[in-house]
């Protein structure tokens, strides 16, 4: 077994620097090329890439948008600490992404929406549900997705370059924002496609070198269990006592389905809890769904989802296994358990498993290929951040700004979307010190636990909205509110008391924090669904067929003259799965708001045209 080198290896040779520079030039070139060939002058062109993306681009973009640096650092880190079970999150997506292409996207396309809050607005009417979803989505983007990507990217940069974390991350954010602001979604999807190949190629190379270091897969099966740090005696025995469970690899490390009571990822949670989180992430999250809405047709959507599903097989082999190998090669660093030693190795006392993947890159890879892997990590970080920037600007522009200024023109909406990207960058930079102070020994567990506390109500409402016609706005709203309250009642005490570790147990009461977060997701989803259905069946349903308010006066006049010709409109057609093929004329529940917004935009255009005529005449 190799001993960890005490000398820090950094990427500073000409070969590595040349590879990194070449990578950035290619990314910029792809972005400029997409700018020149795609219409970005309209809302559809900027936010949905003109609905012109082919299946291969959709599939690659879905995968690249999902796989960020948080996956490289988080999956490898949890794999190093606990084995292969964390790969279940990736394999679960194999099936969920097919639900996206075959069940959810057909409804979204026929509904004619750009954002997910827009769909809920058309499905239920009113403004409170879509506004709730827009605001909570933006908060989740800023404080979980962006912060996690920045933290994981900072871990890699710190290990690989030895640069100042703040300078490195700020530079990455600015470059990412640059091609997001200039290129729109098309630039993201074309660069995503390019970066997907870079990510997969680089990860394959590292996996091959890693298995070569230990002697193959059979060696992994035997050597992992002996990957124990040489120093596991605390310097302060009066403060804490280190149990053997804290530094010995789990005996079920190579089991995907684990004990439902004592397993770190219990099998009921893996089978059902992961599925609930997957429905939220893959079927109702703006970042993912927006890629499908940009496809040329539903056929391209389905083919893209199949491509993404096959690609989701790879993280187990390209991230989880290398993380476990890193623990074998560097048990004293990746598997450190003594708080004083961990603090010296990675800057945090709770463990250093998050450095598993970066440690492999800077020590196993030869010169030149180290630069390639840094490019891979930068690609993952920038792809994920760019996707969030673009999707959050879409949410803010289409669902919040249009409420503030319903008369906004298309040009104004595009400008506001770009300005919002810059605002996201500024907020993210300000959030860096908090991210650095909140370092966790299990990054991927943090991501999934927060999702399990906040996402099940959203998954429940979207699932019921698409498949149950009887669900109405009142039921959906109170389900979201009560589900959020229930999730916060679990999440806030856990943050207050801390999640704890093997050495530092949490002081959170067992009644509140004792249930595994995946089991809690099942309970929360069930309670929300029952409440949504109960309230919906106890209140007035959405009328399937009705006479529009716009025609009621005309209808009364026709009845007085003896004519019986009445125009009826359908409110749920092409908004639920069972009516997705309907050809009947639909009047959306939010037609009055849309009409006012269209009228305001038309008046704004006329004022601009009149002003332009006056200016021309004055000259």
TrEMBL record:
Swiss-Prot/TrEMBL catalytic activity: D-glucose(out) + Na(+)(out) = D-glucose(in) + Na(+)(in)
GO biological process: D-glucose transmembrane transport
Keyword annotations: Cell membrane, Disulfide bond, Glycoprotein, Ion transport, Membrane, Metal-binding, Sodium, Sodium transport, Symport, Transmembrane, Transmembrane helix, Transport
Stored InterPro entries: Na/Glc_symporter_sf, Na/solute_symporter, Na/solute_symporter_CS
Location relative to the cell: Apical cell membrane
GO molecular-function term, one example from the UniProt record: D-glucose:sodium symporter activity
Membrane topology classification: Multi-pass membrane protein
Residue ranges, annotated region (Disordered): 600-619
Keyword tRNA-binding on entry: no
Transmembrane segments: 17-36, 56-85, 91-114, 126-143, 163-190, 197-220, 265-283, 303-325, 372-392, 413-434, 446-468, 475-497, 517-538
GO annotation, cellular component aspect: apical plasma membrane
Function field: Electrogenic Na(+)-coupled sugar symporter that actively transports D-glucose at the plasma membrane, with a Na(+) to sugar coupling ratio of 1:1. Transporter activity is driven by a transmembrane Na(+) electrochemical gradient set by the Na(+)/K(+) pump. Unlike SLC5A1/SGLT1, requires the auxiliary protein PDZK1IP1/MAP17 for full transporter activity. Has a primary role in D-glucose reabsorption from glomerular filtrate across the brush border of the early proximal tubules of the kidney.
UniProt cross-references to NCBIfam families, sorted A to Z: sss (TIGR00813)
Subunit structure, interactors included: Forms a heterodimer (via TM13) with PDZK1IP1 (via N-terminal transmembrane helix); this interaction enhances SLC5A2 transporter activity.
Family recorded in the similarity comment: Belongs to the sodium:solute symporter (SSF) (TC 2.A.21) family.
Name listed for the protein in its UniProt record: Sodium/glucose cotransporter 2
